[in-house]
Write a structure and sequence with these properties.
single chain; 118 residues; 4-stranded antiparallel beta sheet; 1 helix; 4% helix
Length: 118
């Protein structure tokens, strides 16, 4: 059974930084071969794409986070990271990881809350 566990969220002032971590278990070699992404959902909004990374390390970002966020992965640890700099209040949301560009409904974890104060 695949389990994705997100961590690293918190409360930060605008302009600050956070580093999110997503650790996968139960994926075996699938993790190494899968494209992975970060998504976020603010209250009342849909879950949106934030950043994605292919199995070979190519990355893609939503326009709203480009040049501020960096996605990376460590296949030896089954982990994907999201470094978030220059945070804005509009970045406030619950952040989730999943496969990308098509997520798996059964892979959603609990997410990690990011709150940016102005």
């Amino acid at each position: 059974q695949v389990q994705l566990v997100e961590s690293g969220g918190g409360l930060v002032q605008a302009g600050g930084s956070l580093r999110l971590t997503c650790t996968a278990s139960g994926m075996g070699n699938m993790y190494r071969d899968d494209n992975l992404g970060w998504y976020r959902q603010a209250p009342g909004n849909r879950r949106d794409f934030v950043a994605g990374i292919t199995s070979t390390g190519r990355t893609k970002y939503a326009d709203s986070v480009k040049d501020r966020f960096t996605i990376s992965r460590d296949n030896t640890k089954n982990t994907v990271y999201l470094q978030m700099n220059s945070l804005k209040p509009e970045d406030t949301a619950a952040y989730y990881c999943n496969t990308w560009p098509n997520w798996r409904t059964d892979y959603w974890g609990q997410g990690t809350q990011v709150t940016v104060s102005s």
